[in-house]
Amino acid sequence: MVPTARILADRRLLVSVLALLAIANFIGLALVVGPIRARVRTLTQRATTASLAVTTATRELHDARQTTAGSVQAVSDLQRFYTQVLPASQPAARQVTLVRLAQLMREADLSYDRRAFAQEEPEKDAVLTRATLKLSVFGSYRNLRLFLYKLETGPDFIVVRDVGVAQGDDPKEPLEAALTLSTYFKASDGS
Question: Which of 181, 157, 160 has the alpha carbon at shortest distance from 82?
C-alpha cells in the first residue's frame, strides 16, 4: 500500500486546492447559508404571526358584523315594541288600563271597588312615561288567578307591580286584592 504522506506529497496541489475549496465551502455556509437560514426562520415566524393575526382579525370582523346585525335587529325590535306593543299615547294607556281591565274583570267574574289612574312625571331625557293604576278587586281566589293569567298573557303591555290579597273574618266573603298595575307609553311631547 502506498503511504498517505506520499500521496499528499505527490498530489499537494490538488489536496491544497481541495482543502481551500472545503474551507471556502465552510465560510460560504457560515456567511451565506447561515444568514439565509436565520432569515427564513424569521420570515416563517412572521408568516405564522401574520396568519394568526389574520385569523384573529377575521374572527373580530365576524363578531363585529354579528354585533352590528344584532344592534340593527335590537333597534328594529325596540321600534316595533314602541309602535305595536306599547300604547301610543296617554289616552291609549288610560284605555288599556281602565277599559281593557274592566273587560277582563267581567270575564273573570270579579268586581272592583275603587281605581285610581296616575301618570308619573317622566325623568329627564326619558323615552317612556309610566302610567299606574291602583285598584281593589273582589272575588274568589280562582277568579283572581284567572284574571291575573289573562292579564299577563294578553296582548296589552301591562306590568303587575304589586298584589296584596286579604280575606275578611268570614271565609264566605270574597277575597279582596289590592293591585298596582303599570303600563308605559312613549313620551313624545312631554305629556
Answer: 157
Q: What is the pLDDT of residues 78-115, one digit of tens each?
A: 888 888 788 878 788 877 777 888 888 899 999 888 77
Same domain, 178 and 94: yes
Handedness of CA 79, 84, 86, 90 (dihedral sign): positive
Q: Are 104 and 115 in contact (CB under 8 A)?
A: no
**CA-closest candidate to residue 161, choices 129, 133, 126:** 133
pLDDT, position 57:
94
- pTM for this prediction: 0.58
Burial 78-109 (b: 16+ CB within 10 A, else e): eeeeeeeebbebbeebbebbeebbeebbeebe
CA 168/CA 188 separation, integer angstroms: 45
* Residue 162 and residue 98 share a domain: yes
Which backbone phi and psi does 155 adopt, to 5 degrees?
A: -75, -15
Return the CATH number at 177.
3.30.70.60
Q: Identify the CA nearest to 159 among candidates 77, 96, 110.
A: 96
pLDDT value for 190: 45
Residues 124 and 171 in one domain: yes
